[in-house]
Amino acid sequence: MAGYDTVDRSLLAALAADPRATVVALAERLGLSRNTVQARLARLEASDAFRSFERCIDPAPLGYPLEAFINVHVRQKVLSEVVARIAEIPEVIQAHGLSGQVDLLVRVVGRDAHDLFRIDGEILAIDGVERTETALGMGELIPYRLSPLLGR
User: Fold this and answer.
1) Upper half-sphere CA count for residue 149 (Cβ side, 13 Å)
2) What is the rounded distance in angstroms from the CA atom of residue 103 to the CA atom of residue 43?
3) Does pTM top 0.85 for this prediction?
4) pLDDT(44) > 70
């Protein structure tokens, strides 16, 4: 990992293993001073090493047990406007721009099949969206992780 030394990688691995770890706990685990850990964390944060600190909340207990992935085909000239409109839909929990035949991969949650149909319709109604293809998520098999990379 370019730009990160052994201490940075150890600190990132410790955070990946225990995201709630305090500075004191990280310092003890890594055999570093609290000030060193705080300074390293501040530098890592300033370099945008961390993504959102939002907790990963399961939408099912909130009444959204279904997850779907919607492939969205867009007129390229209006891509940024389409993304802004999609971001206004509360059930959209993530979106990625893609290369290839699909322009956007939008991850949504819904209460039931009718709800997913409604959400897909909202996306289709956005000016600049040409078509969508929806696939129901059957379960997360490999959660987002970086620990294997940090261990390399």
Assistant:
1) 8
2) 35
3) no
4) yes
